[in-house]
Amino acid sequence: MVLEQLNILLADDDKDDRFFFKMALDALTIPTQFTAVEDGEKLMEYLAGNAHQLPDVLFLDLNMPRKNGFECLSEIKRNADLKLLPVIIFSTSIEQEVVNRLYINGAQYFMRKPAEFSQLKNIIRHTVQLIMQGNISQPAKENFVLTIQNSLAI
Amino acid sequence: MIAIKKSDEDELTVAYKEIAIQKEENEKLLAALKIAKNELAFQIEEKGKRAEELSIANKELVFQNDEKEKRAAELTIANKELAFQNNEKEKRAAELTIANKELAFQNDEKEKRAAELTIANKELAFQNEEKEKRAAELGIANKELAFQNEEKEKRAAELIIANKELLAFTYISSHDLQEPLRKIQTFVTILLENENENLSESGKNNFQRMQLAAGRMQQLIDDLLAFSRISTTELTLEKTDLNKIIEEVKTELRDTIQEKQATIEATELCPANIIVFQFRQLMYNLISNALKFSNPAIPAHIIVKSRIVKVSKLNNENLSPEKNYCYITVKDNGIGFEPHFSERIFEVFQKLHGKDEYAGTGIGLAIVKKIAENHNGTITATSELNKGAQFDIYIPA
Protein backbone atom coordinates (compact mmCIF):
# COMPACT_ATOMS: atom_id res chain seq x y z
CA MET A 1 0.00 0.00 0.00
CA VAL A 2 1.44 3.39 -0.97
CA LEU A 3 -0.04 6.40 0.79
CA GLU A 4 -0.95 9.62 -1.01
CA GLN A 5 -0.74 11.83 2.01
CA LEU A 6 0.82 11.01 5.34
CA ASN A 7 -0.90 11.84 8.58
CA ILE A 8 1.93 12.52 11.08
CA LEU A 9 1.57 12.95 14.82
CA LEU A 10 4.40 14.29 17.00
CA ALA A 11 4.42 14.07 20.81
CA ASP A 12 7.13 16.30 22.24
CA ASP A 13 7.04 18.65 25.20
CA ASP A 14 9.84 20.81 23.79
CA LYS A 15 8.60 23.80 21.86
CA ASP A 16 11.85 24.20 19.92
CA ASP A 17 11.84 20.59 18.88
CA ARG A 18 8.26 20.83 17.65
CA PHE A 19 9.32 23.93 15.74
CA PHE A 20 12.32 22.16 14.17
CA PHE A 21 10.23 19.14 13.25
CA LYS A 22 7.52 21.22 11.57
CA MET A 23 10.14 23.29 9.77
CA ALA A 24 11.94 20.20 8.48
CA LEU A 25 8.67 18.62 7.39
CA ASP A 26 7.63 21.77 5.53
CA ALA A 27 10.97 21.80 3.73
CA LEU A 28 10.52 18.23 2.52
CA THR A 29 7.67 18.87 0.07
CA ILE A 30 6.04 15.61 0.98
CA PRO A 31 2.24 15.83 1.21
CA THR A 32 1.63 15.47 4.94
CA GLN A 33 -0.86 16.38 7.54
CA PHE A 34 0.92 17.30 10.78
CA THR A 35 -0.35 17.37 14.36
CA ALA A 36 1.68 17.94 17.52
CA VAL A 37 0.81 17.27 21.16
CA GLU A 38 2.71 18.53 24.19
CA ASP A 39 2.88 15.59 26.57
CA GLY A 40 2.00 11.95 27.09
CA GLU A 41 -1.37 12.53 28.63
CA LYS A 42 -2.44 14.76 25.73
CA LEU A 43 -1.15 12.15 23.32
CA MET A 44 -3.29 9.40 24.83
CA GLU A 45 -6.31 11.69 24.91
CA TYR A 46 -5.78 12.59 21.25
CA LEU A 47 -5.45 8.92 20.26
CA ALA A 48 -8.57 7.98 22.23
CA GLY A 49 -10.51 10.75 20.48
CA ASN A 50 -9.29 9.74 17.01
CA ALA A 51 -9.42 5.96 17.34
CA HIS A 52 -11.23 5.65 13.99
CA GLN A 53 -8.94 7.97 12.12
CA LEU A 54 -5.51 7.27 13.57
CA PRO A 55 -2.40 9.00 12.23
CA ASP A 56 -0.18 6.97 9.89
CA VAL A 57 2.81 7.38 12.17
CA LEU A 58 3.65 8.72 15.62
CA PHE A 59 6.96 10.40 16.45
CA LEU A 60 7.34 10.00 20.20
CA ASP A 61 9.73 11.85 22.52
CA LEU A 62 10.79 9.94 25.65
CA ASN A 63 11.31 12.62 28.28
CA MET A 64 7.96 14.28 28.69
CA PRO A 65 6.15 15.57 31.78
CA ARG A 66 3.04 13.85 33.25
CA LYS A 67 3.39 10.72 31.10
CA ASN A 68 6.65 9.80 29.46
CA GLY A 69 7.25 8.13 26.12
CA PHE A 70 7.84 4.66 27.65
CA GLU A 71 4.44 4.70 29.32
CA CYS A 72 2.74 5.92 26.15
CA LEU A 73 4.41 3.21 24.05
CA SER A 74 3.32 0.49 26.48
CA GLU A 75 -0.26 1.79 26.57
CA ILE A 76 -0.44 2.00 22.79
CA LYS A 77 0.92 -1.52 22.27
CA ARG A 78 -1.46 -2.96 24.89
CA ASN A 79 -4.49 -1.29 23.34
CA ALA A 80 -6.12 -3.38 20.60
CA ASP A 81 -7.34 -0.27 18.77
CA LEU A 82 -3.93 1.42 18.81
CA LYS A 83 -1.34 -1.32 18.66
CA LEU A 84 -0.94 -1.21 14.88
CA LEU A 85 0.09 2.45 14.97
CA PRO A 86 3.79 2.66 14.02
CA VAL A 87 5.68 4.44 16.81
CA ILE A 88 9.02 6.06 16.03
CA ILE A 89 11.01 7.03 19.10
CA PHE A 90 12.56 10.46 18.73
CA SER A 91 15.03 11.14 21.51
CA THR A 92 17.99 13.38 22.36
CA SER A 93 20.25 10.63 23.74
CA ILE A 94 20.82 7.06 22.73
CA GLU A 95 21.56 4.31 25.21
CA GLN A 96 21.76 0.66 24.35
CA GLU A 97 19.63 -0.53 27.28
CA VAL A 98 16.93 2.01 26.49
CA VAL A 99 17.02 1.03 22.83
CA ASN A 100 16.70 -2.67 23.77
CA ARG A 101 13.73 -1.96 26.03
CA LEU A 102 11.98 0.08 23.35
CA TYR A 103 12.51 -2.64 20.76
CA ILE A 104 11.03 -5.25 23.10
CA ASN A 105 8.09 -2.93 23.84
CA GLY A 106 7.26 -2.80 20.14
CA ALA A 107 8.54 0.53 18.86
CA GLN A 108 8.95 0.69 15.06
CA TYR A 109 12.21 2.64 14.86
CA PHE A 110 14.50 4.58 17.12
CA MET A 111 16.10 7.79 15.97
CA ARG A 112 18.33 10.25 17.75
CA LYS A 113 17.43 13.89 17.26
CA PRO A 114 20.27 15.15 15.08
CA ALA A 115 22.07 18.39 15.78
CA GLU A 116 22.24 19.65 12.21
CA PHE A 117 19.09 20.85 10.55
CA SER A 118 20.01 19.19 7.25
CA GLN A 119 20.40 15.88 9.05
CA LEU A 120 17.06 16.37 10.72
CA LYS A 121 15.45 16.86 7.34
CA ASN A 122 17.21 13.80 5.95
CA ILE A 123 16.23 11.48 8.72
CA ILE A 124 12.61 12.66 8.73
CA ARG A 125 12.45 12.26 4.98
CA HIS A 126 13.89 8.79 5.17
CA THR A 127 11.52 7.73 7.91
CA VAL A 128 8.46 9.22 6.22
CA GLN A 129 9.39 7.41 3.00
CA LEU A 130 9.74 4.12 4.84
CA ILE A 131 6.27 4.52 6.30
CA MET A 132 4.76 5.63 2.98
CA GLN A 133 6.21 2.53 1.35
CA GLY A 134 4.28 0.48 3.85
CA ASN A 135 7.08 -0.53 6.24
CA ILE A 136 4.93 -0.61 9.34
CA SER A 137 6.01 -3.87 10.95
CA GLN A 138 8.92 -3.97 13.33
CA PRO A 139 12.25 -4.46 11.49
CA ALA A 140 15.07 -6.77 12.56
CA LYS A 141 16.93 -5.56 15.64
CA GLU A 142 19.97 -4.36 13.68
CA ASN A 143 17.78 -2.07 11.57
CA PHE A 144 15.86 -0.70 14.53
CA VAL A 145 18.04 2.36 15.09
CA LEU A 146 17.80 4.82 12.22
CA THR A 147 21.04 6.70 11.75
CA ILE A 148 22.03 9.58 9.52
CA GLN A 149 24.18 7.18 7.51
CA ASN A 150 21.27 4.82 6.97
CA SER A 151 19.02 7.64 5.90
CA LEU A 152 21.58 8.99 3.43
CA ALA A 153 21.99 5.57 1.91
CA ILE A 154 18.43 5.68 0.59
CA MET B 1 63.92 -156.89 144.79
CA ILE B 2 62.07 -157.59 147.94
CA ALA B 3 65.12 -158.37 150.03
CA ILE B 4 66.31 -154.78 150.65
CA LYS B 5 69.38 -154.58 152.59
CA LYS B 6 69.94 -151.73 155.08
CA SER B 7 72.59 -150.35 152.97
CA ASP B 8 70.18 -150.40 150.23
CA GLU B 9 67.64 -148.65 152.41
CA ASP B 10 70.06 -145.96 153.03
CA GLU B 11 70.84 -145.85 149.58
CA LEU B 12 67.16 -145.57 148.85
CA THR B 13 66.72 -142.83 151.35
CA VAL B 14 69.58 -141.06 149.87
CA ALA B 15 68.11 -141.72 146.48
CA TYR B 16 64.80 -140.52 147.69
CA LYS B 17 66.30 -137.56 149.06
CA GLU B 18 68.20 -137.17 145.95
CA ILE B 19 65.04 -137.56 143.97
CA ALA B 20 63.22 -135.08 146.14
CA ILE B 21 66.02 -132.68 145.65
CA GLN B 22 66.00 -133.38 142.01
CA LYS B 23 62.24 -133.04 142.04
CA GLU B 24 62.61 -129.79 143.82
CA GLU B 25 65.33 -128.89 141.47
CA ASN B 26 63.06 -129.86 138.60
CA GLU B 27 60.29 -127.90 140.01
CA LYS B 28 62.56 -125.04 140.40
CA LEU B 29 63.73 -125.60 136.90
CA LEU B 30 60.16 -125.90 135.72
CA ALA B 31 59.32 -122.70 137.42
CA ALA B 32 62.40 -121.22 135.99
CA LEU B 33 61.47 -122.72 132.63
CA LYS B 34 58.06 -121.41 132.97
CA ILE B 35 59.44 -118.04 133.75
CA ALA B 36 61.87 -118.42 130.96
CA LYS B 37 59.11 -119.61 128.76
CA ASN B 38 57.02 -116.63 129.71
CA GLU B 39 60.01 -114.50 129.29
CA LEU B 40 60.55 -116.04 125.88
CA ALA B 41 56.95 -115.65 124.98
CA PHE B 42 57.15 -112.08 126.05
CA GLN B 43 60.34 -111.66 124.20
CA ILE B 44 58.84 -113.33 121.13
CA GLU B 45 55.90 -111.14 121.46
CA GLU B 46 58.17 -108.17 121.82
CA LYS B 47 60.17 -109.33 118.86
CA GLY B 48 56.95 -109.75 116.87
CA LYS B 49 56.01 -106.29 117.84
CA ARG B 50 59.41 -105.04 116.94
CA ALA B 51 59.33 -106.86 113.64
CA GLU B 52 56.03 -105.41 112.92
CA GLU B 53 57.35 -102.02 113.90
CA LEU B 54 60.37 -102.62 111.78
CA SER B 55 58.24 -103.67 108.87
CA ILE B 56 56.25 -100.50 109.23
CA ALA B 57 59.41 -98.53 109.68
CA ASN B 58 60.80 -100.25 106.67
CA LYS B 59 57.80 -99.39 104.55
CA GLU B 60 58.09 -95.87 105.83
CA LEU B 61 61.70 -95.84 104.82
CA VAL B 62 60.90 -97.27 101.38
CA PHE B 63 58.30 -94.59 100.94
CA GLN B 64 60.65 -91.97 102.21
CA ASN B 65 63.29 -93.27 99.88
CA ASP B 66 60.88 -93.07 96.99
CA GLU B 67 59.99 -89.54 97.94
CA LYS B 68 63.62 -88.66 98.25
CA GLU B 69 64.32 -90.05 94.80
CA LYS B 70 61.43 -88.07 93.39
CA ARG B 71 62.74 -84.97 95.13
CA ALA B 72 66.20 -85.74 93.87
CA ALA B 73 64.83 -86.01 90.29
CA GLU B 74 62.91 -82.78 90.79
CA LEU B 75 65.96 -81.16 92.23
CA THR B 76 67.98 -82.32 89.25
CA ILE B 77 65.48 -80.69 86.93
CA ALA B 78 65.33 -77.59 89.15
CA ASN B 79 69.07 -77.59 89.21
CA LYS B 80 69.26 -77.67 85.44
CA GLU B 81 66.70 -74.89 85.30
CA LEU B 82 68.71 -72.88 87.79
CA ALA B 83 71.86 -73.53 85.83
CA PHE B 84 70.11 -72.29 82.70
CA GLN B 85 68.73 -69.29 84.51
CA ASN B 86 72.13 -68.63 85.92
CA ASN B 87 73.57 -68.70 82.45
CA GLU B 88 70.92 -66.35 81.23
CA LYS B 89 71.54 -64.08 84.16
CA GLU B 90 75.18 -64.02 83.38
CA LYS B 91 74.46 -63.13 79.78
CA ARG B 92 72.12 -60.44 80.94
CA ALA B 93 74.62 -59.22 83.38
CA ALA B 94 77.14 -58.99 80.54
CA GLU B 95 74.67 -57.16 78.40
CA LEU B 96 73.77 -54.89 81.27
CA THR B 97 77.38 -54.15 81.78
CA ILE B 98 77.67 -53.08 78.16
CA ALA B 99 74.43 -51.14 78.37
CA ASN B 100 75.61 -49.56 81.53
CA LYS B 101 78.77 -48.39 79.88
CA GLU B 102 76.73 -47.06 76.99
CA LEU B 103 74.45 -45.28 79.44
CA ALA B 104 77.35 -43.86 81.26
CA PHE B 105 78.67 -42.53 77.95
CA GLN B 106 75.30 -41.18 77.01
CA ASN B 107 74.95 -39.63 80.40
CA ASP B 108 78.21 -37.90 79.87
CA GLU B 109 77.04 -36.62 76.52
CA LYS B 110 73.76 -35.54 78.02
CA GLU B 111 75.47 -33.63 80.67
CA LYS B 112 77.54 -31.89 78.03
CA ARG B 113 74.41 -31.17 76.07
CA ALA B 114 72.63 -30.05 79.20
CA ALA B 115 75.42 -27.61 79.81
CA GLU B 116 75.18 -26.37 76.25
CA LEU B 117 71.39 -26.20 76.52
CA THR B 118 71.64 -24.23 79.69
CA ILE B 119 73.72 -21.68 77.83
CA ALA B 120 71.38 -21.74 74.85
CA ASN B 121 68.45 -21.44 77.23
CA LYS B 122 69.84 -18.34 78.78
CA GLU B 123 70.39 -16.93 75.32
CA LEU B 124 66.82 -17.82 74.37
CA ALA B 125 65.47 -16.35 77.55
CA PHE B 126 67.26 -13.14 76.66
CA GLN B 127 65.99 -13.24 73.11
CA ASN B 128 62.53 -14.03 74.40
CA GLU B 129 62.61 -11.03 76.59
CA GLU B 130 63.71 -8.92 73.64
CA LYS B 131 60.97 -10.41 71.53
CA GLU B 132 58.38 -9.69 74.17
CA LYS B 133 59.55 -6.11 74.21
CA ARG B 134 59.31 -5.99 70.45
CA ALA B 135 55.92 -7.73 70.54
CA ALA B 136 54.68 -5.13 72.99
CA GLU B 137 56.00 -2.40 70.71
CA LEU B 138 54.44 -4.10 67.72
CA GLY B 139 51.19 -4.48 69.61
CA ILE B 140 51.08 -0.73 70.05
CA ALA B 141 52.08 -0.13 66.43
CA ASN B 142 49.46 -2.63 65.36
CA LYS B 143 46.71 -0.87 67.22
CA GLU B 144 47.82 2.34 65.64
CA LEU B 145 47.74 0.70 62.21
CA ALA B 146 44.35 -0.88 62.89
CA PHE B 147 43.05 2.54 63.76
CA GLN B 148 44.60 4.07 60.67
CA ASN B 149 43.24 1.21 58.60
CA GLU B 150 39.77 1.77 59.93
CA GLU B 151 40.07 5.43 59.12
CA LYS B 152 41.26 4.55 55.64
CA GLU B 153 38.38 2.15 55.15
CA LYS B 154 35.97 4.85 56.22
CA ARG B 155 37.61 7.25 53.80
CA ALA B 156 37.55 4.61 51.05
CA ALA B 157 33.85 3.96 51.66
CA GLU B 158 33.21 7.70 51.60
CA LEU B 159 35.24 8.00 48.41
CA ILE B 160 33.30 5.18 46.76
CA ILE B 161 30.05 6.94 47.59
CA ALA B 162 31.44 10.29 46.49
CA ASN B 163 32.71 8.71 43.30
CA LYS B 164 29.35 7.15 42.55
CA GLU B 165 27.65 10.44 43.20
CA LEU B 166 30.14 12.18 40.98
CA LEU B 167 29.59 9.69 38.19
CA ALA B 168 25.84 9.95 38.59
CA PHE B 169 26.20 13.72 38.48
CA THR B 170 28.40 13.49 35.40
CA TYR B 171 25.87 11.26 33.76
CA ILE B 172 22.82 13.35 34.57
CA SER B 173 24.46 16.68 33.81
CA SER B 174 25.94 15.39 30.55
CA HIS B 175 22.59 13.97 29.63
CA ASP B 176 20.78 17.20 30.34
CA LEU B 177 23.44 19.33 28.66
CA GLN B 178 22.86 17.51 25.41
CA GLU B 179 19.49 18.98 24.72
CA PRO B 180 20.25 22.73 24.83
CA LEU B 181 23.50 22.11 23.00
CA ARG B 182 21.73 20.23 20.24
CA LYS B 183 19.28 23.10 19.90
CA ILE B 184 22.10 25.63 19.57
CA GLN B 185 23.56 23.45 16.81
CA THR B 186 20.22 23.13 15.05
CA PHE B 187 19.55 26.85 15.23
CA VAL B 188 23.01 27.63 13.86
CA THR B 189 22.48 25.25 10.95
CA ILE B 190 19.03 26.73 10.29
CA LEU B 191 20.55 30.21 10.24
CA LEU B 192 23.32 29.11 7.90
CA GLU B 193 20.86 27.40 5.63
CA ASN B 194 17.93 29.79 5.59
CA GLU B 195 19.66 33.12 6.11
CA ASN B 196 22.65 32.38 3.93
CA GLU B 197 22.11 35.39 1.66
CA ASN B 198 21.55 37.76 4.57
CA LEU B 199 24.80 36.89 6.33
CA SER B 200 28.15 38.55 5.68
CA GLU B 201 31.16 36.31 5.00
CA SER B 202 32.54 36.97 8.46
CA GLY B 203 29.10 36.33 9.95
CA LYS B 204 28.97 32.95 8.18
CA ASN B 205 32.51 32.19 9.29
CA ASN B 206 31.69 32.95 12.91
CA PHE B 207 28.62 30.75 12.76
CA GLN B 208 30.69 27.95 11.31
CA ARG B 209 33.22 28.24 14.13
CA MET B 210 30.38 28.26 16.61
CA GLN B 211 29.13 25.11 14.99
CA LEU B 212 32.55 23.46 15.29
CA ALA B 213 32.79 24.42 18.96
CA ALA B 214 29.31 23.07 19.60
CA GLY B 215 30.21 19.86 17.76
CA ARG B 216 33.27 19.49 19.93
CA MET B 217 31.22 20.04 23.05
CA GLN B 218 28.78 17.41 21.86
CA GLN B 219 31.63 14.97 21.41
CA LEU B 220 32.87 15.74 24.93
CA ILE B 221 29.42 15.16 26.38
CA ASP B 222 29.01 11.91 24.47
CA ASP B 223 32.39 10.67 25.68
CA LEU B 224 31.77 11.75 29.26
CA LEU B 225 28.45 9.96 29.17
CA ALA B 226 30.08 6.84 27.85
CA PHE B 227 32.77 7.11 30.54
CA SER B 228 30.31 7.50 33.41
CA ARG B 229 28.01 4.84 32.00
CA ILE B 230 30.84 2.29 32.22
CA SER B 231 30.80 2.59 36.02
CA THR B 232 27.08 2.92 36.59
CA THR B 233 25.90 -0.05 34.58
CA GLU B 234 25.19 -3.52 35.95
CA LEU B 235 27.81 -6.03 34.95
CA THR B 236 26.96 -9.37 33.40
CA LEU B 237 29.76 -11.42 31.93
CA GLU B 238 29.02 -13.53 28.88
CA LYS B 239 31.26 -16.03 27.13
CA THR B 240 31.58 -14.31 23.78
CA ASP B 241 33.38 -14.91 20.53
CA LEU B 242 35.81 -12.03 20.10
CA ASN B 243 35.63 -12.48 16.31
CA LYS B 244 32.01 -11.36 16.48
CA ILE B 245 32.96 -8.24 18.43
CA ILE B 246 35.74 -7.40 15.96
CA GLU B 247 33.39 -7.92 13.01
CA GLU B 248 30.85 -5.54 14.55
CA VAL B 249 33.53 -2.93 15.16
CA LYS B 250 34.83 -3.31 11.60
CA THR B 251 31.33 -2.77 10.26
CA GLU B 252 30.94 0.35 12.37
CA LEU B 253 34.30 1.71 11.23
CA ARG B 254 33.88 0.63 7.61
CA ASP B 255 34.23 4.13 6.14
CA THR B 256 37.35 5.01 8.09
CA ILE B 257 38.92 1.65 7.26
CA GLN B 258 38.34 2.30 3.57
CA GLU B 259 39.60 5.84 3.83
CA LYS B 260 42.82 4.79 5.56
CA GLN B 261 43.20 1.71 3.31
CA ALA B 262 43.56 -0.21 6.53
CA THR B 263 43.70 -3.96 7.00
CA ILE B 264 42.54 -5.41 10.26
CA GLU B 265 43.91 -8.87 10.90
CA ALA B 266 42.02 -10.81 13.55
CA THR B 267 42.58 -14.48 12.94
CA GLU B 268 43.71 -15.96 16.24
CA LEU B 269 40.98 -15.10 18.71
CA CYS B 270 39.68 -17.11 21.63
CA PRO B 271 36.27 -16.69 23.29
CA ALA B 272 36.35 -14.39 26.31
CA ASN B 273 34.21 -13.70 29.37
CA ILE B 274 33.12 -10.15 28.77
CA ILE B 275 30.47 -7.53 29.33
CA VAL B 276 29.59 -7.50 25.65
CA PHE B 277 28.60 -3.87 25.03
CA GLN B 278 31.52 -2.59 27.11
CA PHE B 279 34.05 -4.78 25.38
CA ARG B 280 32.70 -3.76 22.00
CA GLN B 281 33.33 -0.18 23.05
CA LEU B 282 36.86 -1.08 24.23
CA MET B 283 37.66 -2.69 20.88
CA TYR B 284 36.00 0.15 19.01
CA ASN B 285 38.07 2.73 20.89
CA LEU B 286 41.35 0.85 20.41
CA ILE B 287 40.80 0.15 16.72
CA SER B 288 39.49 3.62 15.92
CA ASN B 289 42.50 5.02 17.79
CA ALA B 290 44.81 2.86 15.73
CA LEU B 291 43.11 4.14 12.58
CA LYS B 292 43.20 7.74 13.75
CA PHE B 293 46.89 7.65 14.62
CA SER B 294 47.93 5.70 11.55
CA ASN B 295 51.02 6.71 9.62
CA PRO B 296 49.82 8.67 6.56
CA ALA B 297 52.75 7.34 4.53
CA ILE B 298 51.80 3.67 4.74
CA PRO B 299 48.52 1.71 4.77
CA ALA B 300 47.34 1.06 8.30
CA HIS B 301 47.78 -2.51 9.48
CA ILE B 302 46.12 -3.54 12.73
CA ILE B 303 46.61 -6.98 14.26
CA VAL B 304 44.27 -8.25 16.98
CA LYS B 305 45.16 -11.51 18.73
CA SER B 306 44.08 -13.31 21.86
CA ARG B 307 44.96 -16.46 23.72
CA ILE B 308 44.60 -18.01 27.18
CA VAL B 309 47.65 -17.61 29.41
CA LYS B 310 48.76 -18.31 32.97
CA VAL B 311 49.67 -15.04 34.52
CA SER B 312 52.48 -16.36 36.77
CA LYS B 313 54.96 -15.83 33.98
CA LEU B 314 53.85 -12.32 33.41
CA ASN B 315 54.93 -10.62 36.58
CA ASN B 316 51.95 -8.29 36.75
CA GLU B 317 51.12 -7.31 40.32
CA ASN B 318 47.47 -6.57 39.60
CA LEU B 319 46.75 -10.07 38.35
CA SER B 320 46.40 -13.31 40.26
CA PRO B 321 48.97 -16.03 39.46
CA GLU B 322 46.49 -18.90 40.00
CA LYS B 323 43.98 -17.80 37.39
CA ASN B 324 43.88 -18.21 33.66
CA TYR B 325 43.72 -14.99 31.72
CA CYS B 326 42.55 -14.09 28.27
CA TYR B 327 45.43 -12.10 26.83
CA ILE B 328 44.39 -9.79 24.01
CA THR B 329 46.78 -7.67 21.97
CA VAL B 330 45.96 -4.84 19.57
CA LYS B 331 49.00 -3.85 17.55
CA ASP B 332 49.28 -1.19 14.88
CA ASN B 333 51.92 0.32 12.58
CA GLY B 334 50.90 3.92 13.25
CA ILE B 335 52.72 6.96 14.53
CA GLY B 336 53.03 5.59 18.08
CA PHE B 337 54.14 7.74 21.00
CA GLU B 338 57.14 8.29 23.21
CA PRO B 339 57.47 5.50 25.81
CA HIS B 340 57.14 7.84 28.80
CA PHE B 341 53.56 8.65 27.82
CA SER B 342 52.52 5.00 28.17
CA GLU B 343 50.57 5.61 31.38
CA ARG B 344 49.40 9.14 30.83
CA ILE B 345 47.48 8.24 27.68
CA PHE B 346 44.99 6.32 29.85
CA GLU B 347 44.08 9.34 31.96
CA VAL B 348 40.91 11.33 31.32
CA PHE B 349 41.32 14.37 29.03
CA GLN B 350 44.99 13.53 28.35
CA LYS B 351 45.96 14.08 24.74
CA LEU B 352 49.32 14.00 23.06
CA HIS B 353 48.26 16.10 20.05
CA GLY B 354 46.52 19.41 19.53
CA LYS B 355 42.85 19.09 18.63
CA ASP B 356 43.50 20.66 15.24
CA GLU B 357 45.98 17.86 14.44
CA TYR B 358 43.91 14.95 15.69
CA ALA B 359 40.31 15.34 16.78
CA GLY B 360 39.30 13.79 20.05
CA THR B 361 38.47 14.51 23.64
CA GLY B 362 41.10 12.44 25.44
CA ILE B 363 38.50 10.18 26.99
CA GLY B 364 38.67 7.20 24.64
CA LEU B 365 41.59 5.39 26.30
CA ALA B 366 40.34 6.32 29.78
CA ILE B 367 37.17 4.46 28.85
CA VAL B 368 39.25 1.55 27.57
CA LYS B 369 41.15 1.36 30.85
CA LYS B 370 37.98 1.58 32.90
CA ILE B 371 36.41 -1.24 30.91
CA ALA B 372 39.50 -3.43 31.37
CA GLU B 373 39.34 -2.76 35.12
CA ASN B 374 35.61 -3.46 35.17
CA HIS B 375 36.53 -6.92 33.90
CA ASN B 376 39.04 -7.30 36.76
CA GLY B 377 41.73 -6.99 34.15
CA THR B 378 44.51 -4.67 33.13
CA ILE B 379 45.64 -2.81 30.05
CA THR B 380 49.08 -1.48 29.25
CA ALA B 381 50.53 0.22 26.20
CA THR B 382 53.98 0.01 24.68
CA SER B 383 55.22 2.17 21.88
CA GLU B 384 58.01 4.20 20.43
CA LEU B 385 57.54 7.26 18.31
CA ASN B 386 56.82 6.29 14.69
CA LYS B 387 57.11 2.61 15.47
CA GLY B 388 53.50 1.70 16.03
CA ALA B 389 51.82 0.92 19.32
CA GLN B 390 50.77 -2.24 21.09
CA PHE B 391 48.04 -2.53 23.70
CA ASP B 392 48.08 -5.58 26.00
CA ILE B 393 44.89 -6.52 27.78
CA TYR B 394 44.50 -9.23 30.40
CA ILE B 395 41.05 -10.26 31.58
CA PRO B 396 40.14 -13.36 33.62
CA ALA B 397 39.34 -16.26 31.28
Task: Explain what you see.
The complex is a heterodimer of chains A (154) and B (397). Chain A is of the alpha/beta class and 154 residues long. Chain A has one domain (6-144): 3-Layer(aba) Sandwich (Rossmann fold). Chain A is built from six helices and six strands, in the order βαβαβαβαβαβα. In chain A, strands 2-1-3-4-5-6 form a six-stranded parallel β-sheet, with helices on both faces. In chain A, helix 5 links the parallel strand 5 and strand 6. In chain A, helix 1 packs across helix 5 (117-132) and helix 2 (40-49) packs parallel to helix 3. The longest helix of chain A has 16 residues, at 117-132. Chain A starts with 5 loop residues before the first strand and ends with a helix. In chain B, helix 2 packs parallel to helix 6 (364-374) and helix 3 (242-252) crosses helix 5 (276-292). Among the domains of chain B are: 141-232, Orthogonal Bundle (Helix Hairpins); 236-396, Heat Shock Protein 90, CATH 3.30.565. In chain B, strands 2-4-5-7-6 form a five-stranded mixed β-sheet, with helices on one face. Chain B is rod-shaped, with a radius of gyration of 68 Å. With 397 residues, chain B is an alpha+beta fold.
Distance between the termini of chain B: 182 Å
Tally the helices of chain B. 6
- Gap between N and C termini of chain A, in Å? 19 Å
Tally of alpha and pi helices of chain A = 6
**Average pLDDT metric of chain A:** 88
Strand content of chain A: 15-25%
The counted number of beta strands of chain B is 7
Shape of chain A: globular
CATH fold-type name of one domain in chain B:
Heat Shock Protein 90
- Radius of gyration of chain A equals 14 Å
Pair of chains with the largest interface and how many residues each contributes: A-B, 17 and 18 residues
Specify the CATH architecture of chain A: 3-Layer(aba) Sandwich
Give the name of the CATH architecture of one domain in chain B. 2-Layer Sandwich
Low-confidence stretches of chain A: none
| Sheet with the most strands, sense and barrel status of chain A | 6 strands, parallel
The share of residues in helices of chain B is 55-70%
Secondary-structure element string of chain B: HHEHHEEHEEHEE
